[in-house]
Amino acid sequence: MNELTTRDEVSALARGLALLRAVADAGEALSNRELAERAGIPKATVSRLTATLQSAGFLRAMAGERYALGPATLHLGNAYLRSFDFRQQARLHLAGLAETAGANVHLGVRDGLDILLIDTLRPKSALILSRMDVGSRMSIATSAAGRAYLAALPADQREELLADIRAASGPAWPEVQQRLTAALEEYARVGYCSSFGEWHPDIHALGFVMHGPQGELYAASVGGPAYMLSKQMLLDSVGPRLLQVQHAIEHEAGLN
């Protein structure tokens, strides 16, 4: 197998994965033309890729020659989630936090410039509804969980991530930088980060991080609708409690 063939196969794989991500991000079935536009891949190539992905079960054909994610992606997703033993260790504590705070609690890991949710817990009262579920994303730059993740990184990794956020922010960077600087200062002062209407205009949340057994970082947030969770209530009542939960989870994992 020559070098050119190897490069071509890697390129085809990258393009196929780009199509799967495009369908996942869209949240609806897409045609070959729409996939070509979103992924920046020639339509003729997209047609061959979607046929291959459908045959392998990663895409399924819908009415109108459109494609949605297939069952093989669920298999991979479940296998991915099963790899997080820490998720099960943290779940009982996070469920208790959701009940105590009367708010939604989300647990996630980094994926690019986002926090990808791997677990979500709601209070039994179900007074606070949420469209966020496993697989949902929160921006690192604007979400409470993302900011806490950024603040907890070693300095060199934090600078790399900040450089990536700067590149993605474009002209908005000065404002983004100002808010992230404030978030880093907040984390250094109180041990968590806040986001009051910045990730979403109607959402208030506090974010914190936990270290896994192998030193990996998990980001978590507790929050919900601003009209039910005031800034002062979160800071006065939930802030101290989430730090207790953080300590309990890490202690149970043998990390403190």
Beta-sheet strand percentage?
15-25%
Helical region count? 9
SSE arrangement, N to C: HEHHEEHHEEEHHHEEEH
The computed structural class is: alpha+beta
Which terms would index this structure?
single chain, alpha+beta, Arc Repressor Mutant, subunit A, Beta-Lactamase, 6-stranded antiparallel beta sheet, 3-stranded antiparallel beta sheet, 20% strand, globular
Describe the structure.
The protein is α+β, with helices and mostly antiparallel strands. It has 2 domains: 3-75, Arc Repressor Mutant, subunit A (Orthogonal Bundle); 84-252, 2-Layer Sandwich (Beta-Lactamase), CATH 3.30.450.40. Helices cover 54% and strands 20% of the residues. The chain has 9 helices and 9 strands. The chain has helices spanning 3-26, 32-39, 43-55, 71-82, 85-101, 144-152, 155-169, 173-190, 231-252, and strands at residues 30-31, 59-62, 66-69, 104-111, 114-121, 137-139, 193-196, 203-211, 217-225. The strands form 2 sheets. It has a 6-stranded antiparallel β-sheet. The protein has a 3-stranded antiparallel β-sheet with strand order 1-3-2. Helix 1 packs across helix 3 (43-55) and helix 2 (32-39) crosses helix 3 (43-55). It starts with a helix and ends with a helix.
